[in-house]
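Continuing the series of single-chain predictions for the mutant panel. This is the parent chain; the variants come on the following pages.
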Amino acid sequence: MESLSRYQHDRWKLRKGSKQSDGEWYSRGYLPHRSRDSLIQHVTVHLADSMPKAAVEKMELSIRLLPDGQQRNERRKRLHELMDAGHGSCVLRIPAAAEIVQESLLHFHEIRYSLHAWVVMPNHFHVFV
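Parent structure:
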C-alpha cells in the first residue's frame, strides 16, 4: 500500500485545480487520485454515522501533540478502531444491505476495474481494486 509522501502531497496541492498532473497523480478538486495500469488501490467507505463527532474530536485532541508523521499514523489507526467499534446504525449488518454493496462492487468488475478483494462490515466496507 502506497501513501502520499510529503513531497507528493505538496506537488499535488500545487496542481489542485488541474484535471491532470504531469504524472500518475491528479485531482478533481477535492481528493488526490492516482492512476497507473496494474496499480492496486485500497478504498474504505464508512457510513455517515459510523464515527460519532465527539469520539473523533476526542481522538484529534489526544494526538495533537504528536509529531506530524506520528499523528497521521496514529489517526489512521484510531479511525479504523472507531469504525470497528460498531458505532451507528450498522445497516450493513442486514444481509440484504450487504448484498447490495457487494453486487454494486461486482457490477463493473473486469469492465472498469478488477476487483481483487472486499469485505463488508456492519458500518463500513473495504475494497481492493
